[in-house]
Design goal:
This is FAD-binding PCMH-type domain-containing protein. With 473 residues, this protein is an alpha+beta fold. Helices cover 25% and strands 22% of the residues. The protein binds flavin-adenine dinucleotide (FAD). The site of flavin-adenine dinucleotide has 33 residues, from α5 and β10.
Length: 473
């Protein structure tokens, strides 16, 4: 932890002199209403495991907060005892930074009890607590005709997903998730609960879209967006059809209106006993899509894909807001995960052929999910948060599931294969939430980083807060 001697943590009000580690943790336990887990607890081994179960973490304690007062008490305690604080709601974004986990030696704050969802349909806004997962907010909005900007998976926290950018089903129509944040309530690095809105322009810019390096967010106010009618679903073919599916995907996305979002998926399931028979040892090409509007228009737009022969399943139909998290059929349970991502300016014939060669053969690819997301539309505009905008047309992603460590080199090798497939169209950039273990320089420009570092100095002068995306690099 970086500390500034002129602003030593003992300046934090309401704290006694530092005690030894055990006494110190006891003093924290006395100040909070939530559950404080320490290595002495029988549940400790399970408590430290994040959603990405292959990321080993060695925190000093885990606090499951009951309310915002707990967060204030925790950060003040941590500043006083010179213990870093890292926020981890689900561990969906858990990763190593320079080979170590940000949770190592830190107090992990899980905003578990902050489950408020307060929807104002008239103003089309919602206050959402930091413990709320995407699927829970979707369920609360079901039947209202409005949605929040939700991604492919129902299990990340709304706050974690949105403050790291938020690339969602409706980004082409409504922009990145971070731009939809109206107000942020955050406990800063000195333990002060602040409400940050547009009147604090530089802070407001920084705390939306650059991750969680500035404090612990307790809740956010989000703009909701019209979605009176959503049509969508998932079409699946055997992977041998990938070349045709990719050609149709390129044709559909070349002229897609902003209301239509289509993501191409290639899935390779290992031949392991715990997978259901229908997918075990099999490989598929698929597209998942959503359309904000009438079914007839969606079907017309999707016709080139629907025309690809050999389809195994097709779930196309009306999509309830509460079911949006299921459209992409992603894994929701904790899993080991390794990640690849690169933004592509386009997909030309050479790139399409190379992708089919790299990932289109049954049983030959160790990456479980390869995804190509169509971007564009409103993602090129707005940019009022530190996330900025995305100029590129597509995002190429890979998720490897290293069920045993022995497969790690094969997955790494396959990621190199994705790099070479994307060689002529890849820009080398990757959005913040999808960086995996690669450096943040792939997303933040030096100018953006300098502004973020200044905001960090302002909100967390003692360097108490640690995140999976440290702005100092
Ligand atoms: C299968 C899968 C699918 C995904 N799909 C999408 C998608 O469609 N679109 C998209 O944009 N992203 C997507 N992501 C990325 C995911 O949204 C980010 O990793 C997000 O940061 C996860 O947030 P979390 O709170 O659930 O995870 P955590 O690991 O708990 O948190 C991740 C980071 O977010 C910050 N953070 C979380 N909570 C707070 C808080 N209360 N205060 C301050 N900082 C906080 C912290 O810096 C923390 O290190 C996906 C990830 C996975 C694994």
């Amino acid at each position: 932890m970086t500390t500034n001697p002129t602003q030593h943590p003992t300046a934090v009000p309401g704290q006694a002199a530092p005690a030894g580690p055990r006494g110190a943790l006891r003093s924290l336990a006395e100040r909070v209403s939530g559950r404080l887990l320490t290595p002495a607890d029988p549940e400790w081994a399970a408590a430290v495991v994040p959603w990405r179960v292959n990321v080993a973490q060695r925190p000093v304690a885990v606090l499951e907060t009951h309310d915002a007062h707990d967060v204030v008490a925790a950060v003040r305690w941590a500043a006083h005892h010179e213990v870093p604080v890292t926020t981890q709601t689900t561990g969906h974004g858990a990763t190593h930074v320079d080979g170590v986990s940000p949770a190592d030696g830190a107090l992990v704050v899980r905003c578990t009890g902050l489950t408020e969802i307060e929807v104002d349909l008239e103003r089309r806004t919602a206050w959402v607590g930091a413990g709320v997962r995407a699927g829970q907010l979707l369920a609360a909005l079901d039947g209202t005709g409005v949605t929040f900007l939700c991604g492919s998976n129902p299990s990340p926290s709304v706050v974690g997903m949105t403050v790291t950018g938020g690339l969602t089903w409706f980004g082409r129509a409504y922009g990145v998730g971070a731009d939809s944040i109206r107000t942020v309530e955050l406990v800063d690095g000195l333990g002060r609960l602040r409400r940050i809105g547009p009147d604090e322009a530089e802070r407001f810019w920084a705390v939306r879209g650059a991750g969680g390096d500035f404090g612990v967010i307790t809740r956010v106010e989000l703009a909701l967006h019209p979605a009176p009618q959503v049509h969508g679903g998932r079409m699946v073919w055997p992977v041998e059809r990938l070349a045709e599916v990719l050609a149709a995907f390129r044709a559909v996305t070349a002229t897609a209106p902003r209301e239509l979002t289509v993501w191409l998926q290639v899935q390779h399931f290992p031949d392991v006993p715990f997978l259901p028979e229908e997918i075990r040892g099999k490989s598929f090409a698929a597209v998942a899509y959503t359309f904000l509007g009438a079914e007839v228009t969606a079907l017309m737009r999707m016709a080139p894909l629907a025309g690809v022969a050999g389809r195994l399943t097709d779930t196309s139909g009306p999509v309830a807001i509460g079911a949006l998290g299921d459209v992409a059929a992603e894994p929701v349970d904790p899993t080991p995960a390794m990640e690849y991502a690169q933004l592509l300016s386009t997909i030309d014939d050479t790139t399409a052929d190379a992708l089919v060669e790299q990932v289109g053969t049954r049983g030959a690819c160790p990456i479980t999910i390869v995804q190509v997301r169509h971007l564009g539309g409103a993602l090129r505009e707005g940019g009022t948060s530190a996330f900025g905008t995305i100029e590129e047309e597509y995002l190429l992603q890979g998720i490897g599931i290293p069920a045993v460590p022995a497969v790690v080199p094969a997955i790494e090798g396959a990621f190199v294969g994705l790099d070479s497939a994307a060689a002529t169209v890849g820009t080398g950039r990757a959005p913040l939430a999808f960086l995996g273990e690669t450096p943040t320089a792939r997303w933040w420009s030096p100018e953006t980083r300098a502004r973020l570092v200044a905001a960090k100095q302002d909100l967390d002068p003692l360097g108490v807060i640690r995140s999976n995306r440290p702005v100092a690099g």
